[in-house]
Amino acid sequence: MTAVGNGWDCHAHLFGPHDRYPLAADRSYTPPEAVASQYLVLLERLGLSHGVLVHPSAYGGDHTLLFEALAAHANLRGVIVTRSQAAPSMAGLRDRGVRAARFSHRSASGANFAGSASFDDLLALAPGLADAGLHAGER
Fold first, then answer.
1. What is the per-residue pLDDT for 13?
2. Per-residue pLDDT, 87
3. Domain-wise residue ranges, the chain
4. pTM of the model
5. Contact 57, 111 (CB under 8 A)
6. Do strands 98-103 and 50-54 pair parallel, antiparallel, or not at all (unpaired)?
7. N or C, fewer C-beta in 10 Å, the chain?
8. Which CATH superfamily is domain 8-138 in?
9. CA-CA distances (angstroms) from residue 91 to 9, 42, 43, 139?
10. How far apart are CA 14 and CA 50, in angstroms?
11. Helices (H) and strands (E) in the chain, counts
């Protein structure tokens, strides 16, 4: 089956392979591997041409898997999750395929959950996001 039109899957996570992309030590769950090649097959099976990868909390502040997947697949875009004190440089993220940062009303202010970003983080990061042409989203 080939992709039909310009359909998008709007939210997916990649995990692993774990030996190459180790999960954060302080994660709250341990997901099974779900690698990029499997996701691309799923997109094709669904007849979709594009996908949005959302950085999963199980990777904490390590965006390596997301950035490498975006670099390898022109039909994918990304959403980072980052805390204000550990944010990557916003400059150039759009060129790397990132379109947004995700924040959560469920993340307590000052909480230090791996891969979680609160609205306090949003307030701190908003100017940099705007300057970089990125959106902010809520889960």
1. 97
2. 67
3. 8-138
4. 0.85
5. no
6. unpaired
7. N
8. Metal-dependent hydrolases (3.20.20.140)
9. 26, 32, 29, 24
10. 15
11. 3, 5
